[in-house]
Specification:
149 residues, alpha/beta, Rossmann fold, 7-stranded parallel beta sheet, 6 helices, 7 strands, 34% helix
């Protein structure tokens, strides 16, 4: 299987890295911001550097959409997986336009309100994964998988 793993750096990236036993046997490409933590943590991996900042930055969201289209056209993933944040929606939109499966894992630290990226990706997700039962009230079709960190 070919996976495109998409996340912002920091905690979002750490949550995807925590799933190593799940993704390590698959052909994969990462998309994240070129920051010191990502450079270090993803050393030896194939990485496409996304435009940063992404949160509430419309020009970079558009740039990331064009980047997503290029990456998806070249790599042809079977699935796009993300833990958010702002870099996820443009990649999910590009994937859905090509009928590529999408999986979103909502962050573990938001129990009482939706995240912006989660709200945007929810309708485009084939699987929307939650880390807490309490999040089901926010995302009714979410699947509780438990904490990854």
């Amino acid at each position: 299987m070919k996976m495109l793993l998409v996340s912002s750096n920091g905690g979002h990236l750490h949550q995807l890295l925590a799933l190593r036993s799940w993704w390590e046997q698959h052909d994969r490409v990462w998309a994240t911001a070129e920051k010191p933590d990502a450079e270090s943590l993803l050393e030896g991996e194939r990485v496409v550097w996304s435009n940063h900042p992404t949160t509430r930055n419309a020009p970079n969201m558009v740039r990331n959409f064009f980047l997503a289209n290029r990456v998806i056209s070249n790599f042809k993933p079977d699935v796009v997986v993300s833990t958010g944040a702002g870099v996820a929606p443009p990649f999910f939109l590009a994937a859905k336009m090509r009928r590529i499966s999408t999986v979103y894992l909502e962050v573990y630290d938001r129990l009482d309100s939706r995240t912006m990226a989660g709200s945007m990706c929810y309708p485009m997700s084939d699987r929307f994964l939650l880390q807490w039962e309490e999040q089901r009230s926010l995302y009714p079709r979410g699947i509780v998988v438990g904490r990854v960190l």
